[in-house]
């Protein structure tokens, strides 16, 4: 069975500007589409019929190949090809690498027509992993080629991460690659995101008191890099999103919040999820006796509670400079969503208690500027209100948050310690 070449031609026309047609031309195209659909259905029917008969031979590969070159997003056909090649490889083990190599060639043809095909990228990775000595280093060159055509093809970026790991590419080398892409065009979400994954590997933070995953001096360099990109075009969100990651809290380190006994029931709370059978967090242990009376012992995570740890002197200086730059930019563009949001993030990182009222005001302003994300800003405001209340709380009887009009409840493991919480 040979599929009509017109199926391939339709794919090749993707991306070209459509030209207005006459009613007659529309009718002709409708007839053409109907013929293609008929050919497609006929091909699929024949392929699935042969599969039902247990046919796993070169003819099945040829038939699926023709359809996939026209539309590589039919996952069923990739699965059928895998069944065929696996079966043929068992019958002729010496030809296994050759069979999988042909699969890799087919995926490249399909990707040339549709570079964002999930099925083609997945099948390519699967086929290479089945080979004895897959050329992973060449795959990096292939990624370079596709990213040169479309630098924001996240399918290719995802595949590159796999290929780089398989090829033994260092995190430092990959960081250089992301820098090349960003220098070419800083509005590249995938390149910035990849940097956030690579930096903790290339420059891990050895400071056990810090929540941020990368070394402080590198952190400062990244802040300077992304600030230049963000201020070049304040309306572009790619650099601002990366900036949010840099000034964010990072991953909270596991710490014991408290252990409480009430009516013979022991309740233990931690800052992060830990094993339900293990109440020893970072080597810290506490002693508590069973009692019918409500008793609790605070752990290190609740003593002098601070959700945003105070930055070092050098980091504080860098963050303060960035805050001043944001304020200068807001003088010219007071309604810039990303600049306002970043200002709030910087204030939180510097001192959320000192800037509490200003941050709340910014979130309220953002609900008007960026109304489509109003609920998000309201939730962030609620989160900050709860954090502020917990940091200041000295009595664990009543926590009254009823005047704050919370839209979401955060930190339930902390709130559980109070006798009563009013929302």
Kindly describe this structure:
By secondary structure, this protein is mostly helical. Helix content is 60%, strand content 5%. It is built from 17 helices and five strands. Strands 2-1-3 form a three-stranded antiparallel sheet, with no helix packed on it. The protein has a two-stranded parallel sheet with strand order 4-5. Helix 13 (313-332) runs antiparallel to helix 14. The longest helix has 30 residues, at 23-52. The N and C termini lie far apart (68 Å). Mean pLDDT is 88; it is low at 11-15.
List keywords for this structure.
60% helix; 17 helices; mainly alpha; 423 residues
Spell out the blueprint of helices and strands.
Blueprint: H1 6-12, H2 23-52, H3 58-70, H4 75-91, H5 96-113, H6 118-130, H7 136-149, H8 154-167, H9 171-184, H10 189-202, H11 216-232, H12 237-247, E1 256-262, E2 265-270, E3 295-298, H13 313-332, H14 337-351, H15 356-369, H16 374-392, E4 398-400, H17 412-415, E5 420-422
Parallel strand pairs: 4-5
Antiparallel strand pairs: 1-2, 1-3
Report the sheet-strand fraction. Answer: 5-15%
Strands ordered across the widest β-sheet: 2-1-3
- SSE ordering: HHHHHHHHHHHHEEEHHHHEHE
First-residue to last-residue Cα separation: 68 Å
Largest sheet: 3 strands, antiparallel
Name the poorly predicted regions. Answer: 11-15
Please, how many helices?
A: 17
Shape: elongated
Mean pLDDT: 88
As a percent range, the share of helical residues equals: 55-70%
Rounded to an integer in angstroms, the radius of gyration calculated over CA atoms is 29 Å
């Amino acid at each position: 069975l040979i599929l009509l070449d017109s199926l391939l031609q339709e794919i090749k026309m993707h991306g070209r500007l459509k030209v207005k047609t006459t009613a007659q031309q529309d009718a002709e195209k409708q007839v053409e589409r109907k013929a293609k659909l008929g050919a497609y259905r006929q091909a699929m029917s024949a392929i699935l019929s042969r599969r039902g008969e247990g046919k796993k031979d070169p003819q099945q590969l040829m038939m699926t190949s023709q359809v996939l070159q026209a539309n590589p997003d039919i996952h069923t056909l990739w699965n059928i090809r895998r069944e065929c090649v696996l079966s043929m490889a068992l019958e002729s083990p010496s030809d296994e690498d050759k069979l999988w190599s042909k699969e890799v060639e087919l995926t490249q043809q399909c990707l040339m027509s549709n570079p964002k095909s999930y099925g083609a990228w997945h099948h390519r990775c699967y086929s290479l992993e089945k080979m004895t000595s897959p050329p992973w280093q060449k795959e990096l060159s292939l990624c370079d080629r596709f990213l040169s055509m479309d630098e924001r093809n996240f399918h290719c970026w995802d595949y590159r991460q796999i290929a780089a790991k398989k090829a033994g590419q260092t995190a430092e080398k990959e960081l250089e690659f992301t820098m090349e892409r960003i220098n070419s065009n800083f509005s590249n979400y995938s390149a910035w995101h990849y940097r956030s994954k690579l930096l903790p590997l290339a420059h891990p933070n050895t400071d056990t008191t810090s929540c941020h995953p990368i070394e402080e001096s590198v952190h400062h360099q990244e802040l300077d890099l992304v600030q230049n990109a963000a201020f070049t075009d304040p309306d572009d969100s790619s650099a601002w999103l990366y900036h949010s990651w840099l000034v964010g809290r990072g991953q909270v380190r596991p710490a014991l919040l408290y252990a409480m006994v009430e009516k013979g029931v022991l309740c233990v709370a931690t800052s992060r999820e830990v094993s339900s059978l293990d109440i020893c967090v970072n080597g810290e242990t506490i002693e508590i006796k069973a009692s019918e009376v409500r008793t609790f012992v605070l752990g290190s995570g609740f003593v002098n509670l601070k959700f945003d740890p105070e930055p070092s002197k050098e980091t504080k200086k860098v963050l303060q400079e960035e805050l001043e730059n944001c304020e200068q930019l807001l003088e010219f563009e007071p309604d810039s969503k990303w600049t306002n949001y970043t200002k709030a993030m910087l204030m939180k990182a510097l001192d959320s208690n000192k800037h509490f009222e200003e941050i709340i005001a910014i979130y309220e302003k953002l609900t008007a500027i960026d109304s489509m994300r109003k609920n998000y800003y309201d939730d962030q405001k609620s989160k900050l209100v709860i954090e502020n209340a917990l940091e200041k709380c000295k009595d664990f009887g009543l926590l009254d948050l009823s005047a704050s009009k919370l839209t979401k409840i955060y930190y339930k493991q902390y709130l559980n310690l109070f006798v009563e919480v009013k929302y």
